[in-house]
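Thread amino acids onto this structure.
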């Protein structure tokens, strides 16, 4: 790793802000960093605007059941989680919102926490239901979920648009809106206004886990 040179003014500031801590501990505190159990530096908190909209998770969860609608829309939790991660990754979500894929204090990538929050929200709002535990020894991965009509019907009107290019974005939109060329959003559909997004996908008080 290359050497890092600090100006005298920066060094003086760090000394004043140290409160008796080491330089390393002071920098970590000022940058809002912490160490997980494995010793990896992680951010303690992430500004909300740096995270993907939680609707990207709720919509993707429902879409995994929607593709099974003509069969039995049931999935093991571990398979559902893997499919959601694959879909969001392929769409470039984690390129646009790297903090969603960063490690949290417990060492898990943040998207897993957000997946859990989205799953709980959909269950609470009657969009999915929890079935029997296929393997009682597996607390989470052995649980099977079923997509319900209330949740699957939402996807007839709402779509998820993702642009994984540099400066890209992810947002919910309408299936009926054709792409439009506007400054900064070339050939993209118009995002739904907050009041147009179904409560089941986001909700006024639902923000997901940061």
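Threaded sequence (210 positions):
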């Amino acid at each position: 790793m290359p050497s890092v040179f600090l100006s005298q003014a920066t060094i003086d500031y760090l000394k004043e802000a140290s409160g008796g801590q080491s330089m390393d501990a002071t920098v970590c505190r000022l940058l809002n960093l912490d160490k997980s159990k494995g010793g990896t530096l992680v951010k303690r908190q992430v500004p909300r605007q740096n995270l993907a909209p939680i609707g990207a998770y709720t919509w993707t969860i429902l879409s995994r059941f929607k593709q099974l609608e003509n069969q039995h829309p049931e999935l093991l939790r571990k398979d559902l989680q893997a499919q959601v991660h694959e879909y969001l990754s392929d769409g470039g979500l984690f390129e646009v919102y790297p903090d969603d894929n960063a490690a949290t204090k417990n060492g898990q990538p943040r998207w897993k926490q957000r997946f859990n929050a989205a799953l709980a929200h959909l269950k609470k709002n009657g969009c999915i239901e929890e079935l029997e535990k296929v393997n009682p020894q597996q607390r989470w991965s052995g649980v099977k979920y079923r997509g319900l009509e209330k949740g699957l019907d939402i996807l007839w009107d709402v779509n998820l648009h993702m642009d994984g290019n540099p400066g890209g974005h992810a947002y919910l939109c309408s299936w009926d809106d054709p792409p439009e060329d506007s400054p900064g959003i070339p050939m993209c559909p118009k995002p739904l206004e907050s009041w147009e997004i179904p409560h089941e996908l986001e909700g006024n008080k639902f923000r997901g886990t940061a």
